[in-house]
Amino acid sequence: MNNIFIFLLAVTWLMNSASAATPASHCLANETTLFTCTLTNKKIVSLCSTKKTPRDTGYLQYRFGVLGRVELAIPNKKSGIPVFALVHSKDKYTEYDKIAIVSEPLTYNIESYRQFKKLKDGYPTPKSNDSLTIEDSRKSVWEGNKVFTSNCSPLAAPLDIEIISKMTGIKAE
């Protein structure tokens, strides 16, 4: 009886570990998942690409929506890469990565922030966080150009700007 209980406990643990190790994503099995996370509103944001280098013959695509139903894809067809900018900053305390995907008049900012040390010069550093912020270029900061902001929950695998830069040939600022 104890052996059956231990076996069932082990199977349950393995199933939970496998599902926790594979976050929800809009990327397909034949694609590379560059970033994916579930937002606090339960929508999923994913950055997917072909296994081939996007700048040569592949594509890089931003996808947003509930699992199994993409509500927005940029570009809307699986070809080429969207207009975007990369930001990367790192020191021994923190690392910050951002991809800003432009689809006028909106900019979709995927940001990853990692805290390595809790204090810098006696001041607290922000906690690790991943988020999506959508900004409207028709509005100024004072008018409230941020039309949507949501954090990832749970924390996603960090956005890796260096990989995206190598794949696309676009350098980080």
Helices and strands, with pairings:
Layout: H1 2-21, E1 31-38, E2 44-50, E3 60-66, E4 69-74, E5 83-90, E6 94-103, E7 106-115, E8 119-120, E9 123-124, E10 129-136, E11 146-151, H2 161-168
Antiparallel strand pairs: 1-2, 2-3, 3-4, 5-6, 6-7, 7-10, 8-9, 10-11
What is the compact description of this entry?
With 173 residues, the chain is an alpha+beta fold. It has helices spanning 2-21, 161-168, and strands at residues 31-38, 44-50, 60-66, 69-74, 83-90, 94-103, 106-115, 119-120, 123-124, 129-136, 146-151.
What do you see in this structure?
With 173 residues, the protein is of the alpha+beta class. The protein has one domain (23-168). The chain contains two helices and eleven strands. A five-stranded antiparallel β-sheet has the order 5-6-7-10-11, with helices on one face. The longest helix has 20 residues, at 2-21. The protein starts with a helix and ends in a 5-residue tail after the last helix.
Relevant terms:
173 residues, alpha+beta, five-stranded antiparallel sheet, four-stranded antiparallel sheet, 2 helices, globular
